[in-house]
């Protein structure tokens, strides 16, 4: 909801601040240029085209700032946050038990006299196009502005669906689920069939690789084990010689009499210590340690003898190991760094081959599922089309009734629900609202069949019928009262008040019958110091409203009869709003 707009240096407006509230806000005044600048400022704030000629004479730039409150979890807040905007907490808003967390968003637009413009969203610089994106969920402008939201057929379809309620919403939800699945099935089916050759080639390569791995039949960790065995077989003689030499050094060489050995020398050392160990505990400890070392050396000597006797030269086994390692190396060059990685590749390849070999079965399954989904979507689409058609007829009748009350008794609308040849995300229907201003005229699209004033009233009638079903929180009407007066003008005001029960409504008007229904009345005031004429905006209290309505009725604020008539209009409007 728009809370506040400030306009500086725009056209005849020097500095004006509009404080808006919920319900119906009307803008009146003697100066048409001032009222136009209010709408121009709003249009700039919503991303409209900038014109340097609108900058106030003698000023280098114009600035429009706005403060809006929005749902914290809504699409507008999400989009603004994505752009880096800062969102400030606002007072919670809602009705009944349902409360919605709200945040404040600051928007601004600066227009230079030479035509350049800059935009800021939430305190951060942003492209002007972002203001337009945000405006789509904030404000619906009906009038001279080009922001005619409901002139787009996609919006008309969405609005009709909301108007239809559960009759469309429930089957449409089921339809959307099945439609998404159909898209996924068709994509997979296309993938399988259109790439059949590539998949067949992939399957052949997998079979070749898996056959090669199966032929070698590697075992987990086999490459590491064979590497160690090959090292032992290739150096068997050197290993045996080293073991025998070490054993002889420890325990003596039987072929060389009196050759020194470690075990003999250690035995002599123990014999030297044993007789004296009882005389000193420290020496006794050293003797014990020497005995332990002797036992360990003896064990090592025995193990060396056993190892040397066990080492055998086996050229045939060495050849077998080398051949096996070569076969394993051929696998690791193609399918993995190690045999364990090769085995993992083979496992994955086997699963993938099963998938590829099952293509024919998968194609049949997908085809059957596609047929089933298509039939279900057809039934749901028929249900949706029927509900839309019924809602379209009701909607057209309701709008026609509203148009009659708005001094357009011969005008009517036709809502066409046209079938398409293919399923779409929202069914098989195209929806378009057509308008005819009088009997016998051919219905035409809204932007081609109605004049400016007719279009504003038509949009008012449509929005009143849609009231409560449209998610846009703020509506702006310009020229909605063009070409009407008297009772029709009262009906325009009454319907604006009806719409204001469901949304914030801002109206620029010159009719007192419309202004009388306002919840908030803003007046554009003109001042002239003899050199420069400027306009500002002030909020009227009850007394000020009577004076302004008197001026609008008779052109004289002090006329007693005009004041009486103004008070009567205000009472009539208040009574009408109370009854509703």
From TrEMBL:
Gene3D superfamilies given in the database record: P-loop containing nucleotide triphosphate hydrolases
InterPro entries: DNA_recomb/repair_RecN, P-loop_NTPase, RecF/RecN/SMC_N
Coiled coil feature spans: none
GO annotation, cellular component aspect: bacterial nucleoid
Keyword annotations of the record: ATP-binding, DNA damage, DNA repair, Nucleotide-binding
Keyword ATP-binding among record annotations: yes
CDD domains, per the entry: ABC_RecN (cd03241)
Keyword Nucleotide-binding: yes
Domain RecF/RecN/SMC N-terminal: residue ranges: 2-531
GO MF: ATP binding
One of the protein's GO biological processes: DNA recombination
Highest taxon in the source lineage: Bacteria
Pfam families tied to this protein: SMC_N
Family: Belongs to the RecN family.
Free-text function comment from the UniProt entry: May be involved in recombinational repair of damaged DNA.
Protein name stated in the entry: DNA repair protein RecN
């Amino acid at each position: 909801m728009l809370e506040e707009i400030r306009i500086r240096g725009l056209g005849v407006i020097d500095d004006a601040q509009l404080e808006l509230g919920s319900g119906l806000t009307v803008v009146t005044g003697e100066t048409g240029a001032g009222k136009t600048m209010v709408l121009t400022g709003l249009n700039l704030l919503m991303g409209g085209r900038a014109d340097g000629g609108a900058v106030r004479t003698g000023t280098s730039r114009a600035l429009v700032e706005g403060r809006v409150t929005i749902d914290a979890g809504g699409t507008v807040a999400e989009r603004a946050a994505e752009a880096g905007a800062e969102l400030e907490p606002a007072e919670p808003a809602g009705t009944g038990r349902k409360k919605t967390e709200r945040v404040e968003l600051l928007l601004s637009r600066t227009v230079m006299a030479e035509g350049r413009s800059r935009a800021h969203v939430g305190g951060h610089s942003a492209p002007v196009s972002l203001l337009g994106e945000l405006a789509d969920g904030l404000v619906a402008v009906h009038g001279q502005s080009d922001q005619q939201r409901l002139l787009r057929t996609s919006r008309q379809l969405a609005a009709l669906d909301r108007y239809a309620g559960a009759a469309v919403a429930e089957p449409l939800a089921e339809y959307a689920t099945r439609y998404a699945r159909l898209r996924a099935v068709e994509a997979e089916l296309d993938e399988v069939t259109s790439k059949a050759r590539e998949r067949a080639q992939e399957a052949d390569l997998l079979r070749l690789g898996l056959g090669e791995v199966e032929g070698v039949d590697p075992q987990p960790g086999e490459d590491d084990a064979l590497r160690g065995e090959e090292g032992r077989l290739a150096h068997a003689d050197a290993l045996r010689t080293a073991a025998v030499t070490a054993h002889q050094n420890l325990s003596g060489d039987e072929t060389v009499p009196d050759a020194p050995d470690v075990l003999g020398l250690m035995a002599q050392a123990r014999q030297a210590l044993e007789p004296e160990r009882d005389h000193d505990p420290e020496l006794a400890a050293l003797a014990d340690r020497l005995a332990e070392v002797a036992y360990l050396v003896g064990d090592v000597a025995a193990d060396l003898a056993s190892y040397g006797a066990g080492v055998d030269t086996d050229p045939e086994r060495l050849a077998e190991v080398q051949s096996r390692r070569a076969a394993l190396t051929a696998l690791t060059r193609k399918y993995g760094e190690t045999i364990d990685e090769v085995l993992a590749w083979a496992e994955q390849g086997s699963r993938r081959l099963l998938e590829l070999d099952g293509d024919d079965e998968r194609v049949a399954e997908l085809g059957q599922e596609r047929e089933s989904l298509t039939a279900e979507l057809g039934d749901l689409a028929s249900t949706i089309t029927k509900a839309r058609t019924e809602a379209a007829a009701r909607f057209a009748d309701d709008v026609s009734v509203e148009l009659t009350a708005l001094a357009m008794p011969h005008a009517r609308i036709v809502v066409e629900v046209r079938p398409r040849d293919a399923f779409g995300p929202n069914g098989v229907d195209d929806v378009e609202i057509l308008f005819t201003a009088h009997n016998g005229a051919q219905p035409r699209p809204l932007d081609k069949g109605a004049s400016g004033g007719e279009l504003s009233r038509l949009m008012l009638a449509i929005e009143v019928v849609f009231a409560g079903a449209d998610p846009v929180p703020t509506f702006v009407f310009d020229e909605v009262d063009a070409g009407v007066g008297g009772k029709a003008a009262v009906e325009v005001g009454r319907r604006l008040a009806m719409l204001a029960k469901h949304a914030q409504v801002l109206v620029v008007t010159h009719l007192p019958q419309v202004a009388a229904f306002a919840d908030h009345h803003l007046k554009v005031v003109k001042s002239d110091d003899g050199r420069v004429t400027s306009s500002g905006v002030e909020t009227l209290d009850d007394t000020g409203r009577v004076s302004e309505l008197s001026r609008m009725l008779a052109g004289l604020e002090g006329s007693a009869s005009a004041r009486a008539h103004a008070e009567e209009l205000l009472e009539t409007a208040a009574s009408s709003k109370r009854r509703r």
